[in-house]
Structure to design on (458 residues):
């Protein structure tokens, strides 16, 4: 897409968004200071100011124009419903403002409040500015997850039909088969997961991708949890384990909680906020699951690239990076890595 | 070798020099993709140098493990099927060691720094 095409797409969105804002906030509502965050083939994100009289709010517009047939992500409509639920339950998220409707002629999507801060893992893990946030991270992350997993799962029953809610292992297996590659390491992972299944784990609303990179942080704390596209009903230990994957430690391998700190304060904070005990054995199970899943997500990016749906050198690299997550999977499975 | 100079490593070096030369002129997004392109070139360079030997060693071990002779992709397919069906459950540790060896071979091409010292 050249710069001219991009500009015309943005102009079109802004014109329709202007009308969508007036419909909801009145004729006086204005739209200013538009910046483009991403303008992908299927997802677009713009930032803008909603101006009402003398007040001005920075908002984020997220739009899905095309749904990939093999997508592992829930619909924007379900994402928005999840945001509303968790926001009501004091999980820090960008405040949901409104959902797009057919009358807006802007495809599927929503508008949420913009939260200032940093998301890049390497900056968060290494910059002096985030020292305080780093120190508090395990306790904060444990507390947020504890709070999230206390939400009555009946409120998120609309997620029950998603493949990840029905059977997370079968969901991964089906995606893996769709991409048509042979991976003996992932077969070992699947076999181990199938022969070590937890008996009827506790089931609740889980984020599904709670990790360094999907959190907006300020110098002192976590400000918002982003990217609820993988939300589903599942074992709370799945979320707890995902944050401890070696892949999010970015070189700080001895700090198991996303490279920030230790597991014990994280687990203790979770138990305090949630009321249920952390099951360490089940966490190990979900870490193995996590490596399998992360490898398959990278194969998905490769598939998007080589099929021509989403050409990108970065996605090409993802395909080859799968080997690293297989390595971490096996090293964890045989106990060399923790 | 029938082909003329530059040879493959020399061509890779030329392309890398070009990418590195334009990095400073790119915006953040383009720069990121240019760095990914360089990363991919490094993979090609390593695969060209050691990929063949890694494949040969992997195929030999697979033949011994499965007790059949076939080309590498076919052997790999058979191993996947055997693991999936539970046939390898009785030889689990042996299967894990075999697959670990294959994965180490892949990581040696993708990003050797990622390997634990025990596998370098």
């Amino acid at each position: 897409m050249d710069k001219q095409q991009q500009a015309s797409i943005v102009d079109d969105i802004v014109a329709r968004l202007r009308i969508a804002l007036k419909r909801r906030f009145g004729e006086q509502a204005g739209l200013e200071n538009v910046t483009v965050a991403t303008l992908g083939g299927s997802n677009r994100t713009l930032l803008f100011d909603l101006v009402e009289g003398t007040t001005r709010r920075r908002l984020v517009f997220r739009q899905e124009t095309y749904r990939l047939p093999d997508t592992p992500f829930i619909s924007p409509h379900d994402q928005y419903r999840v945001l509303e639920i968790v926001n009501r339950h004091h999980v820090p998220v960008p405040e949901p403002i409104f959902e797009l409707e057919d009358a807006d002629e802007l495809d599927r999507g929503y508008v949420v409040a913009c939260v200032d801060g940093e998301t890049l893992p390497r900056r968060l893990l290494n910059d002096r500015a985030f020292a305080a946030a780093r120190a508090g991270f395990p306790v904060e992350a444990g507390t947020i997850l504890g709070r999230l997993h206390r939400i009555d799962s009946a409120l998120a029953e609309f997620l029950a039909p998603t493949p990840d809610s029905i059977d997370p292992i079968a969901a991964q297996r089906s995606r893996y088969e769709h991409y048509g590659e042979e991976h003996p390491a992932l077969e070992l992972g699947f076999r181990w997961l199938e022969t070590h299944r937890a008996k009827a784990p506790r089931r609740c609303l889980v984020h599904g991708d709670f990790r360094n990179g999907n959190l907006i942080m300020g110098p002192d704390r976590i400000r918002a949890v982003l990217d609820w596209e993988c939300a589903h009903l599942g074992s709370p230990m799945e979320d707890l384990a995902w944050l401890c994957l070696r892949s999010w430690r970015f070189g700080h391998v001895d700090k198991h909680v996303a490279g920030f700190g230790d597991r014990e304060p994280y687990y203790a904070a979770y138990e305090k906020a949630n009321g249920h005990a952390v099951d360490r054995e089940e966490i190990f199970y979900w870490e193995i699951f996590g490596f399998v899943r992360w490898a398959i997500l990278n194969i998905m990016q490769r598939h998007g690239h080589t099929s021509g749906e989403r050409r990108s050198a970065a996605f090409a690299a993802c395909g080859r990076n799968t080997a690293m997550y297989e390595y971490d999977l096996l090293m964890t499975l045989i106990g060399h890595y923790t | 070798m029938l082909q003329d100079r530059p040879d493959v490593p020399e061509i890779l070096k030329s392309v890398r020099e070009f990418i590195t030369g334009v990095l400073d002129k790119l915006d953040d997004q383009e720069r990121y993709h240019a760095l990914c392109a360089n990363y991919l070139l490094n993979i090609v360079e390593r695969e060209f140098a050691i990929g063949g030997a890694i494949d040969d060693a992997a195929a030999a071990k697979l033949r011994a493990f499965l007790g059949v002779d076939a080309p590498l992709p076919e052997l790999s397919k058979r191993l996947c099927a055997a693991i999936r069906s539970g046939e390898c459950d009785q030889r689990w540790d042996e299967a894990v060691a075999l697959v670990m060896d294959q994965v180490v071979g892949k990581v040696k091409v993708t990003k050797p720094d990622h390997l634990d010292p025990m596998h370098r």
Notes: Chain A has two domains: 3-113, 121-333. The two ends of chain A are 44 Å apart (CA to CA). Residues 280-306 of chain A form the longest helix (27 residues).
